[in-house]
Amino acid sequence: MVGVGAVGASVAYALAVSGLASELVLVDVNAAKAEGEAMDLAHAAAFIKPVTIYAGTFADCRDAGIVIYCAGASQKPGETRLDLLQKNYAILRESLPELRRGNGEGILLIVSNPVDVLTHAALKITGLSPERVFGSGTVLDSSRFRHSLSRHCGVAPRNIHAYVVGEHGDSEVLLWSLAYIAGTGLDRFCELAGLPPVNRPEVDASVRNAGYEIISRKGATYYAVSLAVKRICESIIRDENSILTVTGLIDGAYGVSGCCLSLPAVVNSRGRGTPLKLPLTGEEEEALRRSADILKAAIRRINL
Q1: Which of 93, 150, 193, 195 has a C-alpha 20 to 30 A away from that of 37?
Q2: Which residues contact 63 (CB under 8 A, 6 or more apart)?
């Protein structure tokens, strides 16, 4: 775990409680902070499954199965994720050569924002294969989408299939055409259940603006994203072949290439598979390409 601010520490906690990992190493530029977080988590040993937790350095990442990168500045009220680009790219550029040294077969999972652009940068800097370098993407956004639909439809979120794709940010795309409950399209399900149609603009706004709403109230978001990262790690460690909307390199899908963004992909012990080509509507494809254009413009700003 590289970077143990609010998000990194929460991810470490989620992983410790889950029992997925046998060893967790916490690395931070503030060594005392990493030591304190490691001590606090380690003291839960009597309540969780066995796991070795300690503060370390980049050298301890060399044989890691997964390096989870959470370092960098967090989003402040009024900031977009893309506003964090210059400062977090500078931190990434300094950190990755140290992380890369000696790390043979591990997976690099980027969580820091703007996650799509930093994932693209990490690919360029490390030279690792696209299967092994990807980001948390819109896994959280997709959960937010399912949560909103769950509240309207009275169905558990885990029984709703709905994806958010594109940027993890303002240009993200909610795939309404592929939202299903019990194998039934959303509008038809509401009709059969005697429910009014979903207010799509309202749900779209609640999902798209969720991060801003939380930050304006408590200053940061970290619980839900930590569980999203735990879910990704679970699919890697257990070789699940789960379909998750992680962000990674796109090479021609929907006419998009030259950037990283989120599309549903199979995630397993080898990393992120080729994104699935889903039957999007013309409007959704166009929105996805607009999202890609925004990300490519951001990539050009850091001369990648």
Answers
A1: 93
A2: 102, 103, 104, 106
Query: What integer pLDDT is reported at residue 102 of this predicted model?
Result: 56
Is residue 122, in this structure, part of any structural domain at all?
A: yes
| Of the residues 135, 165, 187, the one at which a domain ends | 135
Instruction: Judge contact between 298 and 82, C-beta under 8 A.
Output: yes
The structure tokens listed for 192 are: 């059969």
Q: Is 168 a catalytic residue?
A: yes
CATH label of the domain that carries residue 116: 3.40.50.720
Q: Which of 135, 158, 180 is the last residue of a domain?
A: 135
Q: Which of 43, 120, 161, 168 is catalytic?
A: 168
Predicted local confidence at residue 78, as pLDDT: 80
Sheet containing 133-135: give its strands across: 66-69, 107-110, 133-135, 247-251, 257-262
pLDDT reported for residue 63: 85
CATH of the domain at 152: 3.90.110.10
Asked if 29 contacts 58 with a C-beta cutoff of 8 angstroms, the reply is no
Which amino acid type is present at position 38?
Answer: A
Number of separate domains in the chain:
2
In a domain, 1, yes or no: no
Residue 279 DSSP label: -
Question: Does residue 177 belong to any structural domain of this protein?
Answer: yes
| Same-domain status, 244 and 282 | yes
Q: Give the chain's end-to-end CA distance (angstroms, integer).
A: 26
User: Residue 242 and residue 264: Cα distance in Å, rounded?
Assistant: 10
Task: Count the neighbouring beta carbons within 10 Å of the beta carbon of residue 76.
Answer: 11
Rg (CA), the chain: 19
The pLDDT, as a whole number, for residue 132 is 95
Positions in the chain whose pLDDT score sits under 50:
none
Residue 219 domain boundaries: 139-301
How far is 37 from 26, CA to CA, in rounded Å?
8
Distance CA 34, CA 4 (A): 6
Does the pTM of the predicted model rise above 0.90? yes
- Can you read off the two tokens belonging to residue 242? 């789960």
